[in-house]
Amino acid sequence: MQAKRDKLVRLLRDYESLVIGYSGGVDSVFLAKIAVDVLGRERVLAVTGRSESLASWMRGTAREVAERFEIPWLEIDTDEVSNPRYAANPSNRCYFCKSELWGKLVEVARERGLATVADGSNADDVGDHRPGAIAADENSVRSPLLEAGLTKADIRAWSRELGLPTWDQPAAPCLASRIPYGLAVTSERLRRIEQAELALRALGFRDFRVRYHEDTARLEIHPREIDGAVRGYARIRDAVRAAGFATVALDVEGYRRGSLNEALAPSALVQLGAR
């Protein structure tokens, strides 16, 4: 672990200055904090792409952590939803989203005189379906956590040492990841998904997804929380219906990472580390 930490510090020093794609998630928050510690505030800028596909609570986390830990922070608007190739929701949808984001962050870096753009990909992401990694390559985005060999567990442990409130935060990919491939991503659908997920958060659930199936919301709730979901199903049903869903189905398999990709043939998968 110490060798990984030392390598990350060396990498950051080699980058000289840094613009970080900063979503408010575990990895990007950690990277921003370490980068400021190593390079200083004047050579780091954390940038959040403000869009309809980013959950509002994630933006709130990004803002709160930046203020608390004095991380230089900037919000910019991204509008991937208006791109018909993204909105069509193909299996490489993330490529179009990340092309929009990284293109804008490269411009920010150029305008601010910062040398490197980086993302929060980590060693556990290798082999996962990540078409956005192609967009990162095309824009020369670096992945220092991955390059240093840091896993999600490593990052959580180090984040806890640093006192970062995100150390045990569940993974939170974009809201569009709740919509099956081939079903169009629209502002209204994203709004309904977020409203339903905010309702579940208000009921005390932490690790879950509201999967969108037209008028049906299929709820994937982590196995450790699913008993509570069964007991409190009536409250959950009413809260999710209030977001505009007619039917609320509780998936008995529970939340599992990457369930959106279960219907994809292996040939459709784009993997980080095999770009």
Compile the SSE list and pairings.
Elements: H1 2-15, E1 18-21, H2 26-39, E2 44-50, H3 56-68, E3 73-77, H4 84-87, H5 93-112, E4 116-118, H6 132-138, H7 144-147, H8 152-162, H9 187-202, E5 208-213, E6 216-221, H10 223-231, H11 233-241, E7 247-250
Parallel strand pairs: 1-2, 1-4, 2-3, 6-7
Antiparallel strand pairs: 5-6
Helix percent reads 40-55%
Radius of gyration: 19 Å
Uncertain residue segments: 264-275
What's the mean pLDDT score?
92
- Strand line-up of the largest beta sheet: 3-2-1-4
DSSP strand tally: 7
Q: Number of helix segments?
A: 11
| Overall spatial form | globular
- Alpha-beta classification: alpha/beta
What is the H/E order?
A: HEHEHEHHEHHHHEEHHE
Distance between the termini: 27 Å
What portion of residues belong to β-strands?
Answer: 5-15%
List keywords for this structure.
alpha/beta; 11 helices; three-stranded mixed sheet; 7 strands; 44% helix; disordered C terminus; single chain; 275 residues; four-stranded parallel sheet
Describe the overall structure.
- The structure is a single chain.
- This protein has eleven helices and seven strands.
- With 275 residues, it is of the alpha/beta class.
- The chain has a four-stranded parallel β-sheet, sandwiched between helices. The protein has a three-stranded mixed β-sheet with strand order 5-6-7.
- Helix 5 runs parallel beside helix 6 and helix 9 (187-202) packs antiparallel against helix 11 (233-241).
- It is globular and about 55 Å long.
